[in-house]
Write a structure and sequence with these properties.
Blueprint (H helix, E strand, L loop, with lengths): L1 H12 L40 E8 L3 E8 L2 E8 L4 H16 L10 E5 L2 E7 L6 H6 L7 H20 L2 E2 L8 E3 L5 E3 L6 E2 L3 H7 L24 H4 L6 H17 L16 H4 L3 H9 L17 H9 L10 H24 L1 E2 L5 E2 L6 H8 L34 E7 L8 E6 L8 E10 L3 H19 L4 H24 L12 E10 L2 E7 L3 E6 L2 E4 L9 H9 L4 E4 L2 E4 L10 E2 L12 E6 L4 E7 L1 H4 L4 H9 L5 H15 L6 E7 L11
Antiparallel strand pairs: 1-2, 2-3, 3-5, 4-5, 6-9, 7-8, 10-11, 12-24, 13-14, 14-15, 15-16, 15-21, 16-22, 17-18, 17-23, 19-20, 23-24
Amino acid sequence: MVADQQAQAAQQSVPVVEAKNVLNSGDSGEDTSCIRGCCKSSQIRLNVPKAEFLLSQPLAEGSESTVYRASYQDQTVAAKKPKLATAEDINRFHKELQLLLELDHPNIAPLRAARAHPPDYITVFPLFEKGNLAEALHEREWKPTGTATLEIALQVAKALRYVHAKGFVHRDLKPANVLLDENYNAFLSDFGLAIQANQIEHFSKSWKAVGKPTGGFHKRFLVGTFYYMAPEVLKKEVATTKADVYSYAITINELATRTIPYSDRYTDAQCHTVLEMDYSEQQLAAAITVDQLRPVLMTAASRAPPGLASIIERCWHSDPLQRPELEEVIQELDFLKAELARNQAAESGAEMGAEGRVKGTEQTDWRQAAEASVSLGEGTKELASAAVVPAETERKDGTERGYRPTVASGVFETKGARDRMEDTHVAMQDLGGLDGVHLFGIFDGHRGAEAAEFAASAVPRHVYKSLKEGRSAEDALVATFTRTDEQFRREVDARRVLRRGGGKDWHPGCTAVAALVIDDKLVVANAGDCRAVLCRNGKAVQITKDHIAEDPTERARVEAAGGIVEWRVDTWRVGQAAIQVTRSIGDGDLKPAVTAFPEVSAIELTEEDEFLIIASDGLWDVVSNEEALAFVYDTVKDPFLVGKRLATEAITNRLSGDNLTIVIAFLRPVSTFERVY
């Protein structure tokens, strides 16, 4: 009754927006027009009697509307019933209906019918059985393949390009507004906040509230969903179609990472966001607009092609003018899709050699090559499926093991200022089912990412195998480093003939640090300039030594082994390759002087040991050990967020120019809501 009265009032006092009747129906019959006459169609019924709808259970409910599973003309459909409290709400319903009648695109949810008469306003759409993208990712925990990720990214981009070509800005693009059919094709939906692009400046200047956001963030002058709002929207500046491009980037990154923005969690139930843990809404808005904070960018570990990350970064640029046009985005996505198809075809058709190496393609999967090089024994294919081995209750000297740390770990990685990511890592608690055995490691590639990729797979397999053979942790790590180096260099030699020009100058390498926690014992092996720092009773204990040519001892060792060390430009460098590190995995042209033999340290852990920081040199070049500890103390005790804050400090405030990977391992129980010890 109230809605009916408001509708009548709206007809009398609110100006009617001119209809955009693309279908140009000559039929002015009651069934083909809304009550105002501003919405008309010759193909879609707009005054369906209420009796023809049979609404059943709600599918979703938001601040603007409720969507029901319904029956219409013997078909199961989705019926959207808006919540109309004011004449302005009814105006907005008619504007959205006008827009829906104009839209005709294969990746936009099509309008099937409507009831645009009081007191029951309803719009009818096909029922998308797979729900929306947010539900698929965070409730059903769907893991899209690289191909599926690119296909959805393309479909949404094409739908959005079409909307912009029609002269509209969507203003609420997010995974919850991307529907999926049974084949996981994407359909853009929910145009309740859409507005004509030529009206944006008027609305921005007047700052008239034009609807409640659908994502839980509502300030009087803002519309949209907070996590997906462009910086210029948060700053109340004129928002153009480029604001949609920004929202598109956040959405596609969420698809690629399966991670809720500004969090490290996959599901809503697990989610501890930056907003909840360390930021107020105002602080997060400031971080997005001023500090250019963004969600964690997809990495090489994602199933999506790495080239997608570059598109995402350009689309969420802080300057709207620097964001690409959707036509350019679509062209790049088409290229990535074709390239992925070629690579998959090459891999599926590649001939396997006697040693399990792929022949006939230069696109080597280095992790797969490492797995083929390190056999774990008959019947054991994956570390995760290995049998559980009870922890020893006694040390080898016969004394009992007492203290056992409570380990909680997390990793943050970013390519930083570099064009590509060459770091990899491992973070495995209860390695292969070995109770109380935890392995953490970072592999910082140079002259390519191949060595780091290989090591990330080979190192945990070698460690596991060595421990199962009864080796001590120290011996296991030494054997792991040297064997990984030998196997990788053999793999490179086998591939060299496949490279253009014979690959005579192709000698990729990586530095490596690996830490084993076995009950109350911490053993760390290091070759290169990654670093491990232990926080013991509030003090920084540097466990590793930086193996760089600047160190006189390392410089003398290299020269004694026949290597050449020269001062070049700003520091001491090794060989013709001019690398700074003196120990590494790979770098075949610099062997044996640049050895893979690690320095190993062992520490007995006690209750005084609070956490372990392992990081690549991109952090330690600009942050001291003591400063790193201070940041951990002053950040919520979530390992991922601690790593992210350290990386943000290094890149944004201290201008680190390198890739960064940071592993944080807490060694005693902490609360994720605890900010300071």
